[in-house]
Amino acid sequence: MNGKSKQNVAKLRKAIENINPGYAINLMEVCGTHTMTIARSGIRDMLPQNVRLLSGPGCPVCVTSAGDIDKAIEYSKIPGAVLATFGDMIRVPGSRYSLSQARARGSDVRVVYSVYEALKIAESNPDRSVIFESIGFETTAPSVADAIIRAKENGIDNFYVLCLNKTVPRVLRVLSSSDEVRINGFILPGHVSAIIGVRPYRFLASEYGINGIISGFDTEDVLLTIAGLLKHIRDGEAVIENQYSRVVREDGNTAALSLLYGVFEPCDTAWRGIGTIPGSGLKIKDEYGSYDAEKRFGISVTDTHEPRGCRCGDVLRGIIDPQDCPLFGKSCTPDRPVGPCMVSSEGSCGIWYRERKAL
Ligand code: SF4
């Protein structure tokens, strides 16, 4: 941080102290990158004791249910199939084991950096069924839609998508209406908002009286957002603001949205530790149904369960902090993770563990 940034941070800390209403306040971030900024910049330690920051369901790896991991493992066992997945996903334990362990047992599981790499594998291996395990929020779904369109245009008929993507606004509704934790304000995700815009969050203020500010990712951005949220809370207001206006527009990225909803449509989906949320997932439209792994292979799984003792669901709902999980740092570490929140680079348990080690 340069001298100017340090001065700005000091000013923002002072502003937060002055604005602080004094009573217990819970603010939740729903973006793994914000979780990282908060931990790395020591923002928790800069805040008054009555202001608690909760890490919500903002890490796509962490919110993928054990049942969906089990499903991906079953798809990897299809004779002749290649299961392409992102790096963090391969180590996430399902009900019994992980994709990494499935690979050790003979499945052809490959780590890719983008959906386009999976498409390339399909193009180069026309005799293999290449299944891309697609996770992520509105940020990544447009590129998956684009890859499906490209597959269709180029006659690549051995490329399939196991679509586990999720959308953010509906999980915010579930959290807002829950009486488990009273959330006073949301630090809204910058990347997702760049796609969906500001409008889809307005219900938080109008229906639930909860403030939300779309935030950038620097320390100053996050502190500015926290100061803004505290001011609105102190003044008894409920508003949705866009502090990240250098990137986020009111209506989002309309080209990306039309790509996304040209290929996908909403469906019900299961969130780890939260349950099934109607309309919060994405499924491939019938028009592109021949690229839908579920339609092509129709594999379902039963008897799925979260790893024993893992409290990722409570972490993702803001009920506990990672270090309150009895397994944190003991039987669950980044080298030997029990739950996804310890695996992912954006998972709050892993971030808390690494930052604690760095102290
Ligand atoms: S510490 Fe490990 S077991 Fe506990 S909630 Fe986090 S990921 Fe799950």
Essential attributes:
alpha/beta; binds iron/sulfur cluster; Rossmann fold; 359 residues; five-stranded parallel β-sheet; globular
CATH architecture of the largest domain: 3-Layer(aba) Sandwich
Average pLDDT, all residues: 95
Helix content: 40-55%
Strand portion, in percent? Answer: 15-25%
The number of E-state strands comes to 11
Note the total helix count: 16
Whole-number total of structural domains: 3
Question: Taking Cα atoms only, what radius of gyration do you get, to the nearest Å?
Answer: 21 Å
Write the layout of secondary structure elements.
Elements (H helix, E strand, L loop, with lengths): L2 H17 L5 E5 L2 H9 L2 H4 L4 E5 L10 H11 L4 E5 L13 H6 L3 E4 L3 H10 L4 E6 L6 H13 L5 E5 L4 H10 L7 E4 L1 H7 L5 H7 L2 E4 L4 H16 L5 E3 L11 H10 E8 L3 E10 L8 H5 L14 H5 L23 H4 L4 H11 L1
Parallel strand pairs: 1-2, 1-7, 3-4, 3-5, 5-6, 7-8, 8-9
Antiparallel strand pairs: 10-11
Helix pairs in contact: 1-11, 2-16, 7-12
Can you walk me through this structure?
The protein is an alpha/beta fold. It folds into 3 domains: 3-58 and 172-242, Rossmann fold (3-Layer(aba) Sandwich), CATH 3.40.50.11750; 66-167 and 252-297, HypD, alpha/beta domain 2 (Rossmann fold), CATH 3.40.50.11740; 312-358, no CATH class. The protein is 40% helix and 16% strand. It is built from 16 helices and 11 strands. The chain has helices at residues 3-19, 32-40, 43-46, 66-76, 99-104, 115-124, 141-153, 168-177, 190-196, 202-208, 219-234, 254-263, 293-297, 312-316, 340-343, 348-358, and strands spanning 25-29, 51-55, 81-85, 108-111, 129-134, 159-163, 185-188, 211-214, 240-242, 264-271, 275-284. It has a 5-stranded parallel sheet with strand order 2-1-7-8-9. Strands 4-3-5-6 form a 4-stranded parallel sheet, with helices on both faces. The protein has a two-stranded antiparallel ribbon with strand order 10-11. Helix 5 links the parallel strand 3 and strand 4. Helix 1 (3-19) packs parallel to helix 11, helix 2 (32-40) packs parallel to helix 16 (348-358) and helix 7 crosses helix 12 (254-263). The radius of gyration is 21 Å and the shape is globular. The model has no long low-confidence stretch (mean pLDDT 95). Bound molecules: iron/sulfur cluster.
